[in-house]
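[job 4471] stage=fold_predict status=RUNNING
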Amino acid sequence: MMVAGPWVGMASRALRRAAGLGAPSIARASTPSPAPLGLGRPLPVAAACFRERLSFEARFTPSDVARHSSSSSSAAAWDKLPEGSVYGTGSSPKSHAVKRVTTRSLSRKHAEGGKITVITAYDFPSARQVDTAGADVILVGDSAGMVVHGYDTTLPLTLDELLSHCRAVARGARRALCVGDLPFGTYESSVSRCVDASVRVLKEGVMDAVKIEGGNESKLELVRGVVSAGIAVMGHAGLTPQSISVLGGFRSLGRSAKEAEDVFDQALRLQDAGCFSLVLECIPSELAAAITQTLEIPTIGIGSGPATSGQVLVYHDMLGMLSHPHHESVTPAFAKRYASLGNIAHEALKEFCTEVEGGAFPSKDYSPYRIGPAQREILTKRLRARGLAEVADKLESFSIE
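[job 4471] inference complete, writing structure tokens
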């Protein structure tokens, strides 16, 4: 640390003189020394800055100083971050607004025996609903390809399409941990490409982590590469929808001893590769229980029974958003329907069409804007002057029943 010498005191006195201020109330002895260069001339700019500083300091009374002197009260008074946090409570810019869920807090909840809740979301309003409902994690899944874009599978979804969903969700989620899927065909060819795609999900999508499907050797290499790049990865074993070409369709895995052992081993390897959690999709309940018992990281079940560390459902499935009869085939058997919003929306939309066609909407209650009498008279005169008498008559006689 540099020790302040007489130059500091002389500079302070010179600035006080230039600012038109008297000597400080407490005189301090100083060792005589030559005047510093430049301090023999007027210092208007420095003087102005010095006056501003003194004015700022004058705002604080001795009681203010005493109130903020103790370390325990200053943290609360100045809204400092918790001692264990360096920059904030999460990995994204919104992390300073509220106490956010992080991979560490998920790990603590799992260690304490708490169940983890995960729900998918794909836009701002759904993210706000899921976030305020209290879900721990929002998954921006490639299932958007099916429930939002209308594809038969998740495969056609592009990275740019997913990033658009991610950004909307990030704007709506203030508390939950946000995880973005890596879409099929955007990352599998190499570790560097996988890292590049993952970086985009965090930088452009404003997510906190990525999810990578599968646990074979090539996928494990990708997971290790992404984790080494400093990006948290949620793993995914069991039914992996991006692999339906090999699997022969959407089907439950692990129902034979060989398949069950393969899924079990994949789960262990994904943990060793660095995943902070693991989705187990459509595997037998007893297999999911065995995997959960063995792993240290939390497991998130979907169609895999009650013994996992947490559960995930697709937003549209659990709310019955696609509950119109034409869409029944796309709702999985394991997805409990907590509401039938699709039917409610369908009836509401039909009612709107009927009211518009019959002239019932908009009524006077939904037509709030008027031209004042004086302005209407002026407008009517101007229309007549332009030879638009019929229009003027309509304006004069117009009313809403």
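[job 4471] summary: Residues 143 and 353 are 31 Å apart (CA to CA).
[job 4471] exit 0
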